[in-house]
Amino acid sequence: MALDRRLVVRFDWTIFWIVLALAGIGLLSVMSASYRGPHKPIDPLVVRQLIWIAAGLVAMLVVMLFDYRALATYAYPFYVIAVALLIAVEVIGHSTGGSRRWINLGFFHLEPSELAKLAVVLVMVRYFREEPPKGGWSLRQMIIPAVLLGVPVALVLKQPDLGTALILILITVTLVFVSGLNSRTMIALAVAALCVMPLGWHYMKPYQRQRLVSFVNPQADPLGSGYHIIQSEIAIGSGGPWGKGFLKGTQARLNFLPEQSTDFIFAVFAEEFGLAGSLLLIGLYTILIARGAWIARHTRDRFGALLAIGLVAIVFWQVAINIGMATGLLPVVGITLPLVSYGGSSVIAMMIAMGLLISINIRRYFF
Amino acid sequence: MAKFHAKRQNRPVPKLEPRIAILTAAIITVLGLVSVRLYYLQVMQHHQMSELADRNRIRLHRVPAPRGLVFDLRHRPLVDTQPTFDAEIVPEDSPNLSETIERLEGYLGGDDHVADKIAAADEEGRPPYEPVLVAERLDWPKVVALEAHQLELPGVSLEITPGRHYLYGRLAAHLLGYVGEVSREDLIKQTAYHMGDEIGKFGLERGWEPFLRGQPGGQEVEVDAVGRRLRVLREMPDTPGESVVLTIDLDLQQTAEQALQGKNGALVALDPNNGDILAMVSYPAFDPDVFGAGVKSADWRALMSNADHPLQNRVIQGTYPPGSTFKVLDSIAGLQEGTLNEDTVYTCGGGIWFGGREYHCWRKHGHGSIALHNAIVRSCDVYFYNVGQHLGVDRLAHWGNLFGFGNKTGVDLDNEKAGVMPSSAWKQKRYHERWYAAETLSVAIGQGYVAVTPLQLAQFAAMIANGGIRYRPQFVKEVEGLDGGVARSYPPIVEQRVDIGPENLAFVRNAMADVVNGAGGTAHKAQLPGITVCAKTGTAQVVGNKGSLVAGEDEDKMPEKYRDHAWLIAFAPKEHPQIAIACLVEHGGHGGAASAPIVHAVMQRFFELHPPAPPTPELTEDDETPRPAIAHVLEDDPTDAVEER
Description:
In chain A, β2 and β3 (about 110) form a beta hairpin. Chain A has a three-stranded antiparallel β-sheet with strand order 1-2-3, with helices on one face. Chain A is mostly helical. Chain A is built from 13 helices and three strands. The longest helix of chain A has about 35 residues, at about 265-295. Chain A is globular, with a radius of gyration of 21 Å. By secondary structure, chain B is α+β, with helices and mostly antiparallel strands. Helices cover about 35% and strands about 20% of the residues of chain B. Chain B contains 22 helices and 23 strands. In chain B, the strands form seven sheets. In chain B, strands 2, 3, 4, 5, 10, 18 and 19 form a seven-stranded mixed β-sheet that branches. The longest helix of chain B has 28 residues, at about 15-45. The chains are: A mainly alpha, B alpha+beta. Chains A and B meet through α7, α10, α11 and α12 of A and α2, α3, β8 and β9 of B.
């Protein structure tokens, strides 16, 4: 009974409204991206996205009811399941555009790499919830997290899904940083990262190298990613300060990208809603992230605080990389814009993350 | 911060505090940077970008890669690609679309309904500025006309696409298959394809699509306000497809096709030493060029409604009763199971009574007392009724399965049929009825429920030739990489090794040699000078006269559609076989009469190309001593294929 009252009182309306607003923006943008003209029926994509949002909201509310601390117990099993699903993708996966990313469940194409993000956050938080020794974690204590990170990264790279691999690495780095490293470890890790880079270059697929090269030198760019970036920039820039208006974007009509309802959804939105819309969107994300950081700072237990940071890290890195890519600041990697891009797995996974954040906020006083 | 109070405060994680602060600052900085970039694009660059968007004249233009070629065994091209001209229109680029359409239809000769095609493409969800294909494979005058009147046809462009061309028309059509425009179902499954792309639809073209296709390239093209191309901004070269080298020998294939000319039927020749398909003919055939760029519905209808089913590959999809060719299986099964030996004699008086009805021999007057050798040579039905009775259907089925009957051979072509090798279990499952002993009689002479494909029978002949190794039939020798090297090779695949006693094998081979060369043999027309050909004829009954299985003596007077199909299986040379053939002529009449000359022609050509090597190095070419009929035993290493193919 007491719990019920606190659920209501402590319910985090800020996060809730922002999630709704972002989902709404996403729905409009997906509609725009798949718009065919005034006399054409609405694309089934839009209807499906609406279903995902509804399902995601339900998932968010359910997750919110549970005590997040129970997750500490389930972190490793959940991680194992996520990795198993990633392996399953290799075996029974459904491939699209040359990469195997989905498991076809009939009514739903599950994308295990979305779950993997949550699983990696959980398992890292579980590992780092102990207080580090004086001065911070040593290099030896980094071996287990490195393995825990390495397995899913290798698996998503195999799909190939460079974007998710990058996100997994970045959220881990963020968590490691926040949980405290000693300075020697930090330097050692930085050196190691520098050594791995040429190796990474060696293992990259030719098109991925091409993207990097073309990013450094757009003129060396072949067809494809360079063209995408140019078209994306044109879409965003031509939106101007106030945008062309809903469904009035011309660039989106051009279908310059196969991923305009997922990876390049921002360009579609920015063209129609202009700088005002873009800044509003970034503002919403900023408030969400700030709120998450605030929850982290005001949580009494280390596990909850780190979990909040991990969830915030997922949102932040995806937003930064996705918009950075659409605006030509970063090379093209396929990463979705949280809650805005089309996709059942990514919407629902993100909503679950937000439910966890709310759950932490509700219970930050219970001890 | 007072340590004492720290625990009482809301912030129990002071150790995380400073680092969370650093992180938050970093996040704000990054998002700030992104916002600055957005300001730059959406405010400072707004005008340039708007202009670019208004005149968005950069088009992506995909260029399909030239498809890989197909060569025969000796690297002679069978299929290549030639440029063809198609007309496309981008409706969005035409200020006055209806006028443009009208003019365009005028130049095209009016049988292409441009407006309908645009409507249909829009119906299918064509994105704006995506060109619509309005006319394919234009002849030269039309190409010239469109080129000359380009100015009055805004939005219309000529596309040069590499079109598939089958150099020998219908030759090996069922094997090579054909290509066509990618269908919507394909597009859902294969995201690497775009509307209008070419994709292999049938046969080799379909099976080896991933190799043959290559990687499409593209161009970034700048066009002007009416959609005319101004210049190519960037170009991404395509990667041509890899070529496929077949095991088919063009000479042999041509000979086989000529020999079957004017008949319906099938012929397949295998290399018994590795399972390579040397020739494969199914008649009637179709012209694969017809499909090249979207089959015209009239052509399609003609092919579909043709009573002779030209699209059916009879070699793997036609199932027929094997007729007397099955007697070879009876013999091997009987000899191996011990229900029969070389000296077993039965008396044939032209038929036997069994279960209250008479089962005829094809020779009304009978064969008299006859032993196994002559029973095979003269194809005595009564003898094998007896053999079948002693074996029983299940033992026969067991041996039939060993030789591959009733199962797909596994050849890499679509829609292969398994045929039927009946057994008591099979009948129970299929008809929920027990097996009657009388039914075994029909099975023993290859009638009744038994059904085989020509490829299965060729495989059977090859197994007798090579001593019982069942290879999976293959028709691709290798895939050739772009550098000319071998990108992928296909070593022989052994599906099964059947243990047959060498003396039994030798006995059956001798009998089969006498089918061609001995007195009373049924396939004299298959004789070759200087080479011992082994064969067995067979008749697949089309309409069994009710009550008796007698074949009409005066078949020539019968309407053709009631005539039986003529089978012949053969291999040669007897001592060290290099080729095994199965040939079926539909409605060819009784026995090997119709098939033997066809097989003869193919064999003759084969041995012109591959003069038989002496069986042992000691024997010289002009050595006249008769060669002993020894069982040909292969090394255990299946990759030890014949060098000189």
